[in-house]
Amino acid sequence: MTIAVDMGADTSGAPVLIDLEELLATRLLVQGNSGSGKSHLLRRLLERSAGQVQQVVIDPEGDFVTLGPTYGHVVVEATDYSEREIARIAGRLREHRASVVLSLEGLEAEGQMRCAATFLSAMFDAPREHWYPALVVVDEAQLFAPTTGGEVAEDVRRASLAAMTNLMCRGRKRGLAGVIATQRLAKLAKNVAAEASNFLMGRTFLDIDMARAADLLGMERRQAEAIRDLPRGTFLALGPAVCRRPQTVKIGAVETSARSGSPKLTPLPSAPAADLKELIFAEPEPEAAPQLPMAFEARPRRVPAEELISEMARPASLPPEPERSDEEVTTIIADVLRAIVEDPESAGRPASVLFQDFQVRCRMQGLSRSGVELGDFTRRLSSARAGIFDTTDPEWAEAVALAGALPDEMVGPFLLVAKAAKEGAPCPSDAALAETYGTSSLGRVRRLMGYIESRELIVTRTDLSGKRSITIARLGWTTAAAEAA
């Protein structure tokens, strides 16, 4: 299922869309000088994709914490936790698929790099069963993957750079899709920037940055001057998730705002100079000075790590959904599985990725809680690929019970054979079994069938003409003979 994120409009007013699934596979790099609208662009992307995919934001300035009240992001104030607690929180958020904003505001540059490295490394090292798709947005990425050491300790720089490199180079297989934003490409490590396949280039003025941006966009050097003339909030887009040729996009409006905004001119005080001098050099009052009014609430209390982890584990509050009978739930799940199997793009995707697609489709059908966990979904998906969408059907109860002795990924091929045997249809070919198993290797399928036969679940017979038939002795079902190739 394709999910399109509306980022704004091009020069003709047509909407510019980002394919969220393609973005998860190909990553994104955003570049632009301070004030060019990078944070606004990231906020638009996060708001429009909220609820579709897990989101993790590395926020050095604390600007994205305002996403929490509106979109349910858990805000983690890094100053309140130790490195060990940060690592625990990162592991738990992968397990519970909570959207999180890691605010690094209040830390020095070295502390920000150390915290981000610990957090990203813990996410990267999560167990395989927790490799769910997630957008990992890193604002001001040049702070965490610098080209030079600067004034931070060398071990901290290396740890931070390694974590960013893992995110961009090896994170895709773990479901982590890096979205990095930087003020200057020249300050961002090349091996981190080079892994992005999608680009949104904003206004920049230095020749070295314009040249690198033009190279990434496939533009000639003389065309790079156009990057200098881009208005604020306008970017040049390119990449498989956006468009195949450079395209100008004006980023649309957002619903939330940052805690810090651009400075605005306000009238100077009209008091005489003598009065101002007296105010400046006045003796301090003995009592504490009154607190200045704040535009935002004061920093909340420190939340213990255990309480924060418990909050992430607690399911989000949703409006009550209508009561459904077990038959209705079973029908919806079967229809969703049928739609996933019929989608040609789902054939080569792992079950952990399709599980998110399954949950989204169930919500679209009005079923917010399907009651299906990842392990159960894997077996149901294997059955659906074999053409059996309702495993509770008494007609297939015996075959499903026999399949319970096999690993989850082998259920599909076995049930495909069982379906053909029950109907007396020709024996499935190796290619059909490979498609159900999720592989293109026919040799692997032959080894798979040999393993199932060694478990005494099937008996394979090949006649003199080379045609194969398979019998499920315990059920008394036999396929018709057919070519294995």
TrEMBL record:
Q: Where is the Helicase HerA central domain?
A: 10-69
| A Pfam family per the record | DUF87
The record's annotation in Gene3D superfamilies points to: P-loop containing nucleotide triphosphate hydrolases (3.40.50.300)
InterPro entries from the entry?
ATPase_Atu1862_pred, HerA-like, HerA_central, P-loop_NTPase
Output the SUPFAM superfamilies linked to this UniProt entry.
P-loop containing nucleoside triphosphate hydrolases (SSF52540)
Which PANTHER family does the record cross-reference, listed alphabetically? HELICASE MJ1565-RELATED (PTHR42957:SF1)
Q: What is the designated name of this protein? A: AAA-like domain protein
Per the UniProt record, the source organism is: Sphingomonas jeddahensis
